[in-house]
Amino acid sequence: MTYHHILAAGLMLALCSGHAYSAPTTPTYHAADAPEGTPVMYVGHMPPVMDQGRYFHGIFNQLEGRYSATSTEFKWDGEAWYGGDYNKLWLKTEGTLQRGRLHDGDHELLYSRAISTYFNLQGGVRADIDDGPTRTWAAFGVQGLALYQFELQATGYVSDRGRFAARLEGSYDFLLTNRLILQPQAEVNLYTKADAGRQVGAGLSDIDTGLRLRYEIWRKFAPYIAVTYSGYLTQARTIAHSQGEKTGDLRFTFGIRSWF
Amino acid sequence: MSSPSFLRGGLTRRRFVTSLAAGGVATAFARPALAEVQQAGVIPAQAATQWQLTVAHTHIEIDRKSLKAPCIGGSVPAPTLRWRQGDAVEIAVTNHLKHQDTSLHWHGIRLPAQMDGVPGISFAGISPGQTFTYRFPVTQSGTYWYHGHSGMQEAQGLYGALVIDPTQPDPNACPRDYVIMLSEWTDVDPQDILNNLKMQSDYYTFRQRTAASLLPDAKAAEGVLPALKDRLAWSKMRMAATDISDVSGIIYSYLLNGQAPDTNWLGLFTPGERVRLRFINASSMTFFDVRIPGLELLVVQADGNDIEPVPVDEFRIGVAETYDVIVQPKANQAYTIFAQSEDRTGFARGTLAPRAGMSAPIPPLDPRPVRTMVDMGMGTMQPGQSMQTMLGMPSMAMPPHTPMATLPAAPGAAHGAAAPQHTHAAMPMAAAPHPTASNTIAPVPTASTPKAKPPAQPDDTMDMSGMDMSGMDMPGMDMGGMSMPSRAHASTAAHSPHAMPLSNTTSPMAHRGGHIMGHHTGPIDQAVPPATPSTAPPLLQVDDPGPPPLNVENQNIAAMPTDRLGSPGDGLEHNGRRVLTYKQLRATRPGTDSRPPTREIILHLTGNMERYIWGFNGRKFSESGPIRLKKNERVRFTLINDTMMEHPIHLHGMWSELENGQGAYQPYKHTLIAQPGSKLSYLVTADAPGMWAYHCHLMLHMDQGMFRTVIVA
């Protein structure tokens, strides 16, 4: 037993001293993990496998008309990315068109880096461009697949005026059948300071949520019906109310989810 | 050149063009000629040494799916080539594709490295308008195949059968002899398939568990609650138990000798005749489960090498494998050759009949398999069950993630036919802390050690000091009560890849290897000069990278991979039929190299289904250099499949001798299915110098990085 204690102590020592124990002639890698730089002259400099392909995809998660007795609006929420397994350029855009006016326009251009099995780290810029005053933000967040297969996006922002904001977005696909899919989805925005010009209040400012039932006629093309709710919360609610805007609306919605 | 008369006698339907056999020009624009002269599945009447093949785009429509396929002689599959063992063959391949390089790889054929046909590794490929002449001696016999290794041409029809006559009389010669080539056909570009999978990895899976399937699931699980629990467990892991094949019958038509099920390929026989069927799985992404209702299948050859005949009702054939079976239909009736895809989304079908125009009923597809915790490498755990409850179980297998260590390899140990090759039982574990395991392992005997002989003798003691428990940090797991004192001999450890490596405890070097467990930058342990006399067995140098990292490229760690050589595979267990297993494969001749291995290379098959990345040890091809083997080195490859899918692993240029307990008669294969959550090993004699490809033969997995270059020098 003591022998093993000595061994264990030696082991700890060895660990602390890093590679000091490596004999110079010893290869420092495992058979299948030779460093990339290990010189291999491929015939015609042609690697036998091209596993570093780049791909380009885009998706409209929401492309929908929202109807209620008092108001009707058109909403889009989409993203596109280009890149390989680790590094991607990511574009996100959403906005609402109501009575010819563009609201809640939010456009982000991000660099996305795969950091774990299911998550990407993303950083870049966000521009709030619509018919209201324009704001620009630096954005930093994560996007991925959380436990139990929840799609999750959490992003923090800091504006050119030194304000902070955060957005949390999630969705989940319930497979009723292999093509009929029920998707609850929600997005909330938080801000540190009110911005009346954009109907933004300090704290929890707005929520946009929906329960969508889509049918995947084809994976890339799925019409859906939904019930959606969008509304202002807490301080923003007061702001919107004072500006004569509706503070929240539950709407019957239909749209198309499509991607390429 | 002439084949034995008993072979020829059965081949009356063959009208193979002799000009082709004589090296003529028939194939240059041979579409009509070949279509006439070579009926799919029929073997040329005679072997030939000179061949001219032309790869060109041809518009082909099968099952209402039309494609401009890169193929040979305008046919899918390409013509069957018949060679003879001992001949030197010369195959001139001309590329008539407009803008693509092409290549042909002779799958399973032992040949000089530069003739192997892998662009970048063997040669530069064949550019448009060019001709490359392959020249090599044929040293083996049996059923093989050839396929393109450029772009994704093998998925679009660039594949054909190879039949090699043995120089000795063929013990399995039959009056009827057909090639049965199974493959897929789709009009979707393989690059688009990949593109879709990159965006949504279950793009082609329409057999998932849904609300609608809850009732049947509950019935199977004997309760709604267990069914829901199971779903939650899978969902928590962000994986799908219904993930069987990446690409399915939703876009594939499954072909038998190039014929869709509707057009029904026909092989004639005379009742009472023995019929040899040379099954080849030439598909790019599909495993098939093959049977012929009403007929017993006598499996006589695997991957081109004769085996002791095994009578079965059914067998699974992984991508790129071949099996020769003999059937003897006695009745004057038709029989259906039924090959259902593993995911049960479709089937290939043909008919054996005494006369044309006959057909037999097509059996219904079996239920699709559902993955279990065994496939996750969690042993026999149930979903949601923690390791804690497992630890008390008698059958607990040790995690394989052992330090690299040097151990004496007992001569002949690898060939001990009687010795169980994959025992988990005999593994003493000395108490030793590990930096990554916060728990101290206390020597508490478990129920699994009836043969235990504690305390272990000093030189019987396995060194666990470097054991990495990091792969086992599953929720709810407690290593505190874990220990396995029991008895082990050097020989057991040496020939059983499942045993913990036995360290020469007198050598400090043996332990140096241990501490770098799980770190990919660690040194490889060197063979320690034996302190014993020079007659001692050679040392086995174990190269164990430890459990793969959970990272962008790897989704799962098989904490308790099991020996699944005795299992026919997911979806085939307990189906009421006799299904072939790897354990049953026994060569008819003893192996040619009886040396024990001097090195063991442990490789983890890893991947991230969600991102659709595949690799070894959590790295794809482009992130790793070559695997280097010394010329004539005897190496054991141990594969631990951490993914939940089967991977058909193919080493070019050298045989893979599967350690399946058949000792000196272990089968020689070129492609081995690593079942999900399993561990298997095979021996390789590195007798073929040069650069070779080593990869998963699921084409998209290969393409996404489950590939390594092997250099023998």
Automatic annotation (TrEMBL), chain A:
UniProt keyword annotations, A-Z: Signal
Signal sequence residues: 1-22
GO cellular component: cell outer membrane
Signal as UniProt keyword: yes
Record GO terms (molecular function): copper ion binding
Any Pfam family matching the protein: CopB
GO biological process, alphabetically ordered: intracellular copper ion homeostasis
Name of the protein this chain belongs to: Copper resistance protein CopB
Organism: Acetobacter orientalis
UniProtKB/TrEMBL annotation, chain B:
Xref: InterPro entries: Cu-oxidase-like_N (IPR011707), Cu-oxidase_2nd (IPR001117), Cu-oxidase_C (IPR011706), Cu-oxidase_fam (IPR045087), Cu-R_CopA (IPR006376), Cu_oxidase_CS (IPR033138), Cu_oxidase_Cu_BS (IPR002355), Cupredoxin (IPR008972)
SUPFAM superfamilies, A to Z: Cupredoxins
Organism superkingdom: Bacteria
Composition bias, Low complexity: 438-451
Domain (Plastocyanin-like) ranges: 55-168, 177-345, 595-712
Classification via Pfam families: Cu-oxidase, Cu-oxidase_2, Cu-oxidase_3
Sequence segments annotated as region (Disordered): 438-465, 516-544
Transmembrane portions of the chain: none
Gene Ontology CC annotations of this record: periplasmic space
GO MF terms, alphabetically ordered: copper ion binding; oxidoreductase activity
Official protein name in the record: Copper resistance protein CopA
